[in-house]
Structures are given as structure tokens and as C-alpha cells.
Design brief:
Shape: globular
Structural class: alpha/beta
Distance between the termini: 33 Å
Number of helices: 15
Helix content: 25-40%
């Protein structure tokens, strides 16, 4: 069993002993700590909750809701929902925060609590640390019997979210409808199945073929939207009867596309394509994290904007977007953040913008993908013993490559002519992650192996 307490929330595998797995006692403890934090930091005694469709979701959501009620906090329960839907609902409900019960792309045995502030954005590192400390010290208090919170359900927010996308100025349903798109969708049997097909129909898509759109929570494949997990939809597209494939993760904040021939548009290129479209309509700046493709910088500079990189993590990307006035940003894992909508990764907003872009482009998805700079990312890791000082290794790598431009806001990123390598330590285990990118897959892999060899030599020197 696994339980991971971090500044972004609590996640773990269901079952086991308290403190070792995500048990009811751990859920109550952490929900209470978060409830206490909301009461201290907001005058609004209301929290919005929602969940994805995974099998443990209802059990976890009920524990969360009843704990908050016991603290005198009103709860608005959206039921089966999406992460971006809850993010939109928090300010609209004038709530003090929100909790999404989802383990995102993690497999079926996992669940988690994602924590939002009163703006409907993820809490900061400092705020997350406050919640962790409250949980560790049992620093929370429950309400007297006449001061318990009130519980209400509101299942209208998925419809609100669809209309919100339709109302965005850069989303054009008429242009989309004119293309008579035929699209196949994989929603991994989670809440995307409730909203993505409906959004596509509202946008004027002529044919919507659903794969795994029944929100049973029984995932038919690994729910992370990576090529190796998406054979079924790829085969469906290979027959040549569709214009596009769309895939979302269980809580609908990550978005991936497949071309009309079953090939992959590329998870990294979801943000690139959407940003290109937004920048073609409005000059501005962009942000992604340090481990995302260089193609976003290329597209931004071509459109006369400024690109900036943030530390890995959605909250870090949002902070950088605000400080640099970015009009579009996100992460290379298929996460699109469009401030005109809200500061959170939103697959539904991404779909609306991408389909408008593809419709106006007037050619196939594969042709659109071919219009962008072609880069390849190699993702590797080195497992270390707890005794090894990861910070010391990163410092020595930085020293060895000091002649090159280096970014140290999150680990060490070394920039070469048309390629880069990013090394960062895991927050939860003794691992160094090594991401590299180049114009060919072989070169990216070679660069990663070279750095990995450097690291192994540094470790050997210490021994």
C-alpha cells in the first residue's frame, strides 16, 4: 500500500493500515486539515467537491463531504464531474475552496484529493505546507450540533462548462460544423464520457464515435493518455473513417489527439497547436514547464511573443503565466491553460480551441502536425539509494556543463543549440528524472544516455 502526502494534496492506494494506504481515517484527517485551512483563510464557509468515476470515488467523496459538514462547512457536491469543472464552480459558487476526488492518470487502485483555493486554482506550496502541518498536528476542530454544515447537490455544472466553452470568443462552432468532422473519443470509462461527446455535438461535430465513454470507473486500459495505452482508438482510426481521435484522462484535465490515420499527434503538441491558434488571433506570451517541448518557444517567437519556462507543476506554471502576462500556457502532458477561461488545465477548453484551429486550417490533422517544428523527447530515470546525495550530483553536472546556458529553478536544465536535457529529483522517491529533447529520437536518446553516464561516473567516484 502507498500513501503520499505532498503540498498538492494526498494520494494513495485504497486500503491497508492508516498512514500506509489511503484509508478512511487518512481521508477524514486530511479533509479536516484542509477544512480548517479554508476557515482560517476565507470568510466563505463553503467548499465545492466533485469526483471522477473511479471505483473508490463515491466512498472517498462521502467521507470528504461528511467531514466538512462536521466542521460547520457547507458542501456543494457536483457528483461525477471533472477537475476543470470544479475549478470553474468554486468562484461561481462563492466558495472558500474546492476538493476534487481524483487520482488523475493513476491506475484504478489509486485515489487522491486535489485541493483548490477560493479562486478555483490549486493551492500554493506554502498553503499546501500549512495543510500538511495541520494534519500532522491534528490542528482542527469540529462544530457543535447546531452549527453543522449544509449539504447540497448540483449536477448542472457539466452543462455550464460546455456552454462556457461555446461562449469563448476564439471558439467558433459554425466553422467547426462546416467541416463536418467525424471524431472518435476515448474517455477511459470516466467522467469524460459524460461531457466530451456532448461538447462535440454542441460544437457541431457531425459524427461522434464513443469508445469507453460509460463512467463505470472500470478503466479498460492504463488511464494515462500515452501511445502505448491507446491501441484501440488507433486501430479505429486506421480504417480511415474518421478525421480525428480525442483522448482524455479520468479527470479531464489532460488532452491528447490522434491523426486521421491512427498516428499520434503527440501529447506535447496539444499545447503547441492550441497556442499557435491563440497567438494567431492575439499577440502575447506563453509559458510551459521546463520539461515541455521546445516547439512552443519556436511557435511563440514566430508569432512575435515571448516564451518563458516554469518549474514543473501546474501551480508553478500558473504563477509564471500571471507574472509574465501569458495569454496561453500549460504543460507538455496535454495540459492546456487558457486564462481567458480560467487558470487551470482544461481538456474541454482545449478541444474547443483545437477544433476551431483545425477547421480554419482546412486540412487534415496530420498536415497540421507536420506544420510544426519536429522535436522528440526521451524520458528516462535513474534509481538511487537513499544514501546518495542527489543535490550534490546535480551540482556536479551543472559544473561540468557550465559553458552552456543552464536553468536551475527546478533541478538542472542544460540548453544546447537545438536540444536540451533536464534533470530533476523526484519529490517522493530517490530518483533522478532525465528528460532530453532533440530533432531526432536517436539524438535525444543519445543525449540522455550521455548525461546518465555522467551521473553514474559521479556516483562511482563517491564510492
Amino acid at each position: 500500500m502507498t500513501l503520499i502526502k505532498s503540498i498538492s494534496g494526498i494520494r494513495g492506494t485504497i486500503g491497508g493500515k492508516p498512514g500506509e494506504g489511503l484509508t478512511p481515517l487518512d481521508i477524514v484527517k486530511f479533509s479536516a486539515a484542509y477544512g480548517a485551512w479554508v476557515l482560517e483563510n476565507s470568510e466563505k464557509k463553503k467548499i465545492v467537491i466533485g469526483r471522477d468515476a473511479r471505483l473508490s470515488g463515491e466512498m472517498v467523496a462521502q467521507l470528504v463531504a461528511q467531514t466538512l459538514l462536521g466542521m460547520g462547512i457547507d458542501v456543494v457536491d457536483l457528483g461525477l464531474s471533472t477537475t476543470p469543472t470544479v475549478e470553474l464552480a468554486v468562484p461561481r459558487e462563492n466558495a472558500g475552496g474546492g476538493i476534487i476526488v481524483t487520482a488523475s492518470h493513476n491506475p484504478i487502485q489509486w485515489n487522491a484529493l486535489k485541493l483548490l483555493n477560493q479562486q478555483g486554482e490549486f493551492i500554493s506550496e506554502r498553503e499546501g505546507q500549512d495543510v500538511l502541518e495541520k494534519a500532522a498536528q491534528d490542528d482542527y476542530q469540529f462544530a457543535e450540533v447546531r452549527k453543522l454544515g449544509n449539504y447540497s447537490k448540483n449536477e448542472d455544472y457539466l452543462d455550464f462548462h460546455i456552454q462556457h466553452v461555446l461562449d469563448l470568443a476564439l471558439v467558433d462552432p459554425e466553422v467547426i460544423a462546416a467541416r463536418k468532422f467525424k471524431i472518435v473519443v476515448d474517455c477511459v470509462n470516466s467522467t469524460g464520457g459524460l461531457v466530451v461527446p456532448q461538447l462535440l455535438k454542441a460544437l457541431g461535430v457531425e459524427v461522434v464515435e464513443c469508445l469507453f465513454c460509460d463512467p463505470t470507473g472500470d478503466f479498460p486500459h492504463n488511464p494515462e493518455p500515452l501511445p502505448q495505452h491507446l491501441r484501440d482508438i488507433s486501430l479505429k482510426l486506421e480504417n480511415g473513417n474518421f478525421d480525428l481521435g480525442i483522448v482524455v484522462d479520468p479527470d479531464v484535465d489532460r488532452l491528447a489527439f490522434l491523426n486521421e490515420d491512427g498516428s499520434f499527434f503527440g501529447e506535447e503538441y496539444t499545447l503547441v497547436a492550441v497556442a499557435d491558434y491563440v497567438l494567431s488571433c492575439q499577440k502575447g506570451n506563453t509559458v510551459s514547464n521546463l520539461s515541455s517541448t521546445r516547439a512552443l518557444r519556436d511557435v511563440t517567437e514566430k508569432r512575435e511573443g515571448t516564451y518563458q519556462a516554469a518549474a514543473v507543476g501546474e501551480v508553478n506554471v500558473v504563477t509564471q503565466m500571471k507574472s509574465s502576462n501569458a495569454i496561453i500556457g500549460g504543460e507538455g502532458n496535454g495540459g492546456v491553460i487558457y486564462p481567458e477561461s480560467h487558470y487551470g488545465r482544461d481538456a474541454l477548453v482545449g478541444i474547443g480551441l483545437f477544433l476551431t484551429h483545425l477547421a480554419k486550417f482546412g486540412k487534415s490533422a496530420s498536415r497540421l502536425r507536420a506544420s510544426y517544428p519536429n522535436y522528440f523527447i526521451s524520458k528516462n530515470k535513474i534509481e538511487l539509494t537513499p544514501a546518495i546525495n542527489v543535490d550534490s550530483i546535480l551540482e556536479k553536472i551543472q559544473l561540468k556543463y557550465q559553458k552552456f546556458p543552464i536553468n536551475t529553478i527546478d533541478g538542472v536544465k542544460i540548453e544546447f543549440e537545438k536540444e536540451w536535457v533536464h534533470l530533476r529529483k523526484s519529490n517522493t522517491e530517490p530518483i533522478i528524472r532525465i528528460y532530453s529533447e532533440s530533432e531526432t529520437a536517436a539524438t535525444a536518446e543519445h543525449l540522455a544516455k550521455k548525461i546518465m553516464l555522467d551521473i553514474k561516473e559521479i556516483i562511482a567516484e563517491k564510492n
